Amino acid sequence: MGPDGSNSSDLRGPRSYDEFNMAKRAGNYGWPYFNGRDAYRYYNFATKESGAWWDSVKPVNHSPNNTGLIELPPTEHPLIWYPYAASEEFPEMGSGGRSAVGGPIFHRSDFKKDAKSLFPAYYEGKWLITDWVRGWMLSVTLDDNGKLVSMERFLPDMVLRGPIDMKFGPDGALYILEYGNGYFKDNPEAELIKIEYNGGNRKPVVQVAADKTAGPLPLKTKLSAAGTTDADGDSLRYDWKITRNGALVKTFKEANPELSLTTPGVYKASLTVTDAAGAKNSKSVEIAAGNAVPEVKMNFTQGNTSFFFPAIR
User: CATH class for domain 209-289?
Assistant: First the structure.
């Protein structure tokens, strides 16, 4: 919140921060006279002169646009606050762009006892938070009065891509909505992900690829399971199924088979990986046989060839 400033100024006030707060009652959380734990100075925009620092104990609002209270309640200190730079108070938050996104607080009593993906008791009362830009998730521990005790990274190897909302489902799993990496456009990586707790044997994590996903007939492509892992180190069994219009065409029992297609159509190559304890996971890739991907080439006959500017009509 606050002006988009990377540095503090003696003439104006503190740099900008994002905040996480817990509001148990109505309160004055600072803006626009305070940011993080620091006060701004009164500033006369007509004369460009700085005045006194605002008083956090007795703030007043003399704005000509104010239609409410002039004498405001004392400000509430933020629970967690962090700037663009690395935070000395909260180093777990890293540095970079900022866009705080609050998540749910976990209570086992909110779910049925037989919820199949219920998080462990370790997370009882912990608050899950994230940041739309930085993509981390943090597990925040609060005391009985809602004061900060500690925080730690949740799934530290996971980087989210524009998380905008997260909630626990009735099955106890955590659902996270990712906007994607770009602003105001169709982001192919935007998705709804599900995080399940598994206190025993973990499913394999499956990755699939094909060196050719389209081309003329006959089409030969190398299927790959590279990147498939099992967190428990179990031996893995691979089962490829190639289908077209829902009908089974071929099967393979190896990790990286070579597929040859002589009939046109859109095929789905689905890989199911099973570990030694029977846990399995699947992933698919589509292959278009008989239709090559067009090659696009643009020739510039004059002007700057470093950039492309579409014609205005």
Answer: mainly beta
